[in-house]
Amino acid sequence: MNSHIYDAIVIGAGGMGSASAYHLAKSGADVLVLEQFQRGHAFGSSHGATRIIRFFYDKPFYTELMKTAYAEWRDLESVSGKPLLFITGSVCLGGRRNSYGQSVRRSLDAAGVKSEWWAATQLTERFPQFRVSNDMDILWQADTGFLHAAECVLTHLELAERHGATVQEETAVTDIDWQGDFPTVCTDDGQFHGRKVVVTAGAWTGKLLTALNLPLTVTKQQVCYYQPTDTDYFKPKRFPVFAEMTADGEFLYGVPAFGSGVKIARHGRGELVSPDTCQRTPDTDYITHIDAYVQERMPGLGRSTAAEVCLYTETPDEDFIIDRHRQCPDVLVAAGFSGHGFKFCSLVGRIMSELAMNGETDFDIHPFCIDREPNTSSGIPRLQS
Ligand SMILES: Cc1cc2nc3c(=O)[nH]c(=O)nc-3n(C[C@H](O)[C@H](O)[C@H](O)COP(=O)(O)OP(=O)(O)OC[C@H]3O[C@@H](n4cnc5c(N)ncnc54)[C@H](O)[C@@H]3O)c2cc1C
Q1: What is the pLDDT of residues 230-251, one digit of tens each?
Q2: Gap from CA of 379 to ligand 1 centroid (Å)
Q3: In the CATH scheme, what is the code of domain 89-143+217-314?
């Protein structure tokens, strides 16, 4: 039995855990991070070169929170000296009157974030890579871009260690016991005590916190990469992030060439899986489907050259869970990021640190309450099947 009592034990060193560890250690806390695999592994949700960062959301509270998330990422860049956030602007493609675009526009307007409606011809003049029909309405937002995701995780961990945190890899947490004075975290390598325990276990959260019976489902998601002959044409300075709600209700998105190439994927509609047994091999019918979309929308990209599997951990309303454990307030939970959480890591890390060290946060986290009724107030149909 290890008699040391940490100020905080963070379970999971993915996007959320690495950021929580950084903010906790920066605030002076004595932090232990326990990760079941090695840092930067590809079995969870935060691997790969890119994640989109954007203000555009159909639920206004996300747009509002993004103001601080952007500032925190810029701060991380300046502290680490590494470029992590790349601004490209974005186009949100939709049919005439683009109902998704309209809800997004309302959120942006409410938060004072500028956006512009474009006609199809404006899109193809500025970005001739797209082939669209004239009856499309396009919403342009200049602040969108992408984060160098894998590097963000490593950077948060590296800086947390520089502030004194201990990161213990290949150590799976098997249980959390809160019957004593402090929560005890159990692993096959021994037990650890923390005044606070921060659970950022991604797709494994439901398994670790079975008593809470959290409404989380884990789905297999896939992304395709394209390496066109003229890669420069699709680089960040010349090609934007895009999202499209198709007439069939599919939500597709893409990120300019970076790392493995241009990334194109479908948001949601993944097969239900267990994170422990999910086959990490991409499905050929998925690749064929995305290739067909690309042929129609951006024919210059050619056919996909690689694909990758990743996991979503979804809540019924796709809103996050950021709260205290109902049976033990010293255990904090950040989970259910529903395929859109990475851009918030920098902010979630700060919030988890504030909740752990001060018992409260000034950020409005009430939409993320652990035992809420599902919030579907936007009136937009759920994107996932
Ligand atoms: C294909 C895809 C595309 C996405 N695109 C975007 C995007 O463009 N923009 C965006 O904002 N978001 C995006 N997301 C969502 C975003 O990546 C996730 O919301 C985010 O990475 C979740 O981070 P996490 O820390 O919760 O999970 P993870 O990064 O999976 O971290 C959880 C960690 O906990 C560890 N762990 C679990 N259980 C234990 C245990 N018992 N003991 C020790 N360690 C444990 C795991 O090994 C893992 O390292 C995307 C996700 C996917 C899959």
Answers
A1: 989 999 999 999 999 988 889 9
A2: 27
A3: 3.30.9.10
